[in-house]
Amino acid sequence: MLESPLHLSDRHFGMIAKLIEGQVGIKLPAGKRLMLEGRLHKRVRALNYGGLNEYVETLFEAGQLDDELTHLIDVVTTNKTDFFREPSHFTFMREVAVPELLKPRGRGDLKIWSAACSTGMEAYSTAMVLDDMTRTGSRFQFRILGTDISTAVLRLAKTAIYTRDTLEPVPPAFIKRYFLSAKDRASDEVRIVPELRRRTNFMRMNLMDSKYPVDRDVDIIFCRNVLIYFERETQRKVVEQLCAHLRPGGYLMVGHSESMVHSVVPGLKQVQPTIFRV
Ligand SMILES: C[S@@+](CC[C@H](N)C(=O)[O-])C[C@H]1O[C@@H](n2cnc3c(N)ncnc32)[C@H](O)[C@@H]1O
Predict the structure, then answer these.
(1) Which of 13, 93, 131, 261 is least surrounded by Cβ atoms within 10 Å, i.e. has the fewest?
(2) How much distance in Å is there from the Cα of 206 to the middle of ligand 1?
(3) What's the gap between Cα 105 and its chain centre?
(4) Is any ligand 1 atom within 6 A of the Cβ of residue 116?
(5) Distance 148 CA to ligand 1 centre (A)
């Protein structure tokens, strides 16, 4: 039977799945094949290939992969995020984590890391809460780092420009204080204010790497809604490595569907189902 340009053969799907799991940690079971085909079409058309299988064959030819891997990763990663997603973590940060972390120090600098930050909404939600705390009596400075493997989402995170419909979960007082409207009144874009952008940095980082170029005295790490895509052994390695970057007493927050981390890394102190402390 002739190969269809719109479908991946078993062999070509297997080649991509193996590559992605090895490089990024994300599993691509057979059920993800349609999704992958759908997402790859645009790229394959843009590069003028005759079909998906031809694209995969070329990918594995000498020298091609390095150039294309960044695009492929952008294509296969799921970047869904929201401002104040899983809001109980932000309440916990305000009411418990930050006061606990500052108690022995009185005041100080807090370092927060949004690992797998997608378009930056998690990092900027954190920045809004922390800035709000400093306006209402708490005495501390803060810096936030956002990292992700996808260059496409990091570009968005750095520009900090979002459409107005993404603001639905943001409290009205925060919208007023932390977002700028476009000068063009017809535009539906808003931008995070410079005061928060200045305190937030983004860089590309793969959680699969054996070393993370990040300080080892981070106060709170958000690593949410990414571990779920990894195999158990990868989850264990990633969580152990992340915890090595927390200061004693620091917190790790994982997504609400990722509480299984507790059984994967048994030494972790569980404060709430998805909140851990070292
Ligand atoms: C579903 S989003 C979650 C975003 C945010 N943490 C949240 O909960 O709203 C998952 C993010 O993980 C990133 N990601 C996937 N594999 C990764 C890896 N190996 N290293 C770093 N980031 C990764 C993806 O690019 C994507 O932006």
Answers:
(1) 131
(2) 10
(3) 29
(4) yes
(5) 6
| Ligand 1 binding pocket includes 246 (Cβ within 6 Å) | no
Would you tell me how many other CB atoms lie within 10 Å of the CB of residue 99?
A: 12
**Own/partner pairs, 64-68, CB within 8 angstroms, 24+ separation:** 65/19
At residue 60 the predicted structure's pLDDT band, cuts being 50, 70 and 90, is confident
Residue 78, ligand 1, Cβ within 6 A: yes
Dihedral (CA of 171, 95, 97, 229) sign: negative
Bridge partners for 110 per DSSP: 142
Tell me which residue range forms the domain holding 269. Answer: 88-159+196-277
pLDDT tens per residue across span 71-120: 999 999 999 999 999 999 999 999 999 999 999 876 689 999 999 999 99
Here the CATH number for the domain that contains residue 24 is: 1.10.155.10
Q: How far is the CA of 146 from the centre of ligand 1 (A)?
A: 11
The single residue listed with the structure tokens 């290939």 is: 49
Q: Is 26 in the pocket of ligand 1 (CB under 6 A)?
A: yes
